[in-house]
Design brief:
Elements (H helix, E strand, L loop, with lengths): L1 H18 L3 E8 L3 E8 L5 E4 L6 E7 L7 E7 L2 E10 L2 E8 L5 E6 L7 E8 L14 E7 L9 E2 L4 E2 H19 L4 E5 L9 H10 L4 E8 L9 E6 L6 H11 L3 E6 L14 H20 L4 E9 L2 H4 L5 E8 L3 H7 L2 H22 L12 E3 L3 H7 L12 E3 L7
Parallel strand pairs: 10-13, 10-14, 14-18, 15-17
Antiparallel strand pairs: 1-2, 2-9, 3-4, 4-7, 5-6, 6-7, 8-9, 8-16, 11-12, 15-18, 19-20
Helix pairs in contact: 2-8, 5-8
């Protein structure tokens, strides 16, 4: 009997030790105008944002054990001065981030496990009240947003092993490369992400607004239960969906991996507007129509009538005209194979560049111009790419785009 009691006691003890929630790892990363801290925990957890008298101190308490010594790191980058991590109580992990300026800090909790861990992210923005943002009215700023990213793959084609996030990033790289090489001083091209990282939907719009963008464009690839669905489609924001299909697309794209909490200060110079004005919605519709027309002219197949509207979170708070493009259906094997073509994606990028320039001319009362794009040799290595499954290295970071009559790679 004593042996049985001993066995039960040891089992309970082991279970208690194993089940204790602990910090597995933490890291930080500096993105476009913000610093991200990621905390990985072994089990489900709760957290609390602690209000401090010194508003430059952001304090986050996480219900988890922390057995190591208190860690302090001087960062001095962006709007972050330093971070301190330690045990506040036996089962409370406390994170203290010291800011340089009073600013908005957002906390995102992953609603799904990432690599077997539960995660919470803290984003500290660089822009703050009083920051000197110079606006050149002669420059047309376009922010390009590659959909999904990081632990959010977006739509997935299992038979070809391709993720939406990679296709989107590659097309955006190509668009920026074209603008960089036509050297048109009228345009300033910004990206919400230029690597395989996750950025929350609202954050993408905030990045665009912080650049004082004239145009915001989110690039995606569609998916459908109907394996025959084919073609590109174009969306703008509306509180009411233009069709059941548009409502379904918005539902998919609005489905995030995170739950969001915000600690904001009244002193912050708010970049996001409260609502989109009727003018912005109207101009967004016009831009979506311009893209559709260019795709038609370049013989890119259009899905249905092409232009739709729905309640897209990524477009909702945009202070400038904003559109979301679904470049094709990744769920359709035939179209997905086309999207795997480096040349086809370059052609899509050229069409989008032409649409941006056409829209610029339209809103400035100018005639459409013949857009001269850089002549390049676009190689297609689809078979090789299907082996390594890597689309992130397609474009400028490899030798897939090479100038004609010019030595070397781009």
């Amino acid at each position: 009997m004593k042996k049985n009691y001993l066995f039960i006691f040891i089992s309970i003890l082991l279970f208690t030790v194993v089940s204790a929630n602990e910090l597995v790892n933490w890291e930080y990363w500096y993105g476009k105008d913000f610093m991200r801290f990621s905390f990985m925990l072994s089990d489900e957890f709760e957290y609390n944002i602690v209000e401090m008298e010194d508003e430059r101190l952001f304090v986050l308490d996480i219900k988890a054990e922390y057995k190591d010594e208190t860690k302090f790191k001087n960062i001095d980058k962006g709007n972050v001065e330093s971070i301190r991590i330690g045990a506040f109580k036996k089962d409370i992990l406390r994170v203290v981030i010291k800011l340089k300026f009073i600013n908005e800090v957002k906390v995102y909790k992953a609603s799904k496990k990432v690599n077997g861990n539960h995660m919470v992210f803290v984003d500290v923005d660089d822009y703050y009240a009083g920051k000197d943002i110079k606006i050149d009215n002669n420059i047309f700023t376009v922010t390009l947003d590659p959909g999904h990213g990081g632990f959010d793959p977006g739509a997935h084609n299992s038979s070809l092993g391709i993720n939406e996030k990679d296709l989107c990033l590659d097309i955006v790289w190509k668009i920026k490369w074209i603008f960089d090489n036509i050297a048109d001083s009228r345009f300033n091209i910004k990206l919400t992400r230029d690597d395989d990282i996750y950025i929350p939907l609202k954050k993408r719009t905030a990045i665009s607004n912080s650049y004082r963008s004239n145009l915001f464009l989110s690039i995606h690839a569609d998916s459908s239960y109907n394996k025959e669905a084919y073609g590109a489609s174009f969306y703008h924001y509306s509180t009411e969906s233009s069709s059941k299909e548009a409502n379904w697309v918005a539902y998919k794209e609005n489905n995030e991996f995170i739950e969001e909490s915000v600690k904001a200060s009244d002193d912050i110079d708010k970049i996001l507007g409260d609502i989109m004005t009727n003018r912005v919605i109207r101009d967004s519709s016009v831009f979506s129509g311009v893209i559709k027309n260019v795709f038609n002219e370049n013989s890119v197949k259009i899905h249905g009538r092409g232009v739709f509207s729905a309640d897209f979170r990524v477009l909702e708070d945009s202070s400038c005209p904003a559109s979301l493009i679904e470049v094709g259906f990744i769920s359709n094997d035939d179209e997905c194979k086309k999207l795997l073509s480096n040349k086809y994606r370059y052609d899509l990028a050229k069409s989008i560049v032409c649409a941006i320039i056409n829209y610029y001319n339209k809103v400035n009362g100018k005639q459409e111009e013949v857009v001269v794009l850089p002549e390049v040799v676009v190689s297609d290595k689809t078979e090789e790419l299907l082996i390594d499954r890597m689309l992130n290295t397609f474009c400028i970071k490899s030798d897939y785009l090479v100038f004609k009559n010019k030595r070397g790679n781009i």
